[in-house]
Automatic annotation (TrEMBL):
This is DUF4440 domain-containing protein. SUPFAM superfamilies: NTF2-like. Gene3D superfamilies: 3.10.450.50. Keywords: Signal. It comes from Hymenobacter glacieicola.
Amino acid sequence: MKQLHLLLTLLWLALPALAFAQSKKDQAAATAVEALERQRFEAQVKKDYAVLERVFSDDLVYTHSNGKQNNKQEYLQSIRDGKSQYDKIDVEALNVRAYHDGRTAVVNGTITITLPPKPDGTPNLAHLKYVVVQIKDPKKGWQVVLWQSQKQPEAKS
């Protein structure tokens, strides 16, 4: 009985250290995922298909702000075909939460996408709130498995 009490006491004393170690892994994952998000946005603008092929999971579900869904190949083809065009993507807010010992991340944020100008030449902007789920594949690294966005109302002057 005394040994069990000692073991439980040691376990109780070790819990803060274990929690700290896990939070360190989660913090490192959150930092890596934030960098990847910014790299992905840049790759979408530059049409860097090598990066996009790597960061999007083969089972990607990409839901546009208009509700249309694409898988990975459909989404990349929409960029190639000019259906999804990005002149610039500005990150306004970005929040990353890592889970499962740094193997899963949920991202939410706000971006402004500058699209090609409207036919009358006026600027064409899309203000979006979005959610992304990324997983860390042991062989491929961090990959986006889910993207969901929603258009935000235009700010009134």
